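Subject: Protein record for review, amino acid sequence with backbone structure tokens
Concerning: The relation between a protein's sequence and the shape of its backbone.
How to read it: Take the token row as a discrete description of the fold.
Enclosed: The protein record, placed directly beneath this head.
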Amino acid sequence: MGRRYGQHFLGDLGILQRMLECAQLTPEDTVVEIGPGRGVLTEGLLERVQRVIAVEIDPYLCKLLRSRFKNSANLELIEGDVLQFDFKAIERFKVVSNIPYNLTTPIIFKILEEGQGLQGIILMLQKEVAKRITSLKGCKDYGVLTLMVQYRSSSRLEFVVPREAFRPPPKVDSAVVSFSPLPRSAVKVCNEESFFKVIRTSFLQRRKTLANSLKPYGSNIKTILTDIGIDPMARPETLSLDDFARLSDTLTQKNW
């Protein structure tokens, strides 16, 4: 039943144990679990923390979870879409989840943007997505997702999970990634919306030079890039978060 929501269920208890260790949980913690499925990870969380808020969209799985954990007073089960969940309402919390892979990016962005009381995140993701998130400048996996995550957090690939650990097995391997939220954004920008737009535009055709990718910003884009010390012939993956901040602020001041 849960598969129609993009879920594959992890049955390897050793991997679950490693995930829980990475989360560095304490008995005082509140944890949000997204897509608890049949509750295998949920059980481990309930044994370790004060409160677990499990958000599950599948009515069938919610019924199963209610039955399985009917005597667990520290579980709050919410039947609904996590993209509608109010993370701002929780004072202090961590996120520990094997999230639906088809919603990885919007879920991560929502948590990082709304989680004012966020203390840390441990997520199991597709390996390829994990590599993009944790990539370094200049690497082929470095891109929009890398920079968007870097803006609000530091991340690390903790370990790889083979596809055989799931039932049914997905078509790809997975990885566990940890995120540490930053007390403030990694760079200061004049306008966040413009900043993110410049990044997305730069990577729309990543094989092109910046001067070509950023043509929508005007015929003098080569001059603008040169004036702020960025090579117009450079590829977007060679720019740092600071470089994109300088570029965005310059274009914002020119009313783009």
User: Anything to note?
Assistant: The longest strand covers residues 118-126.
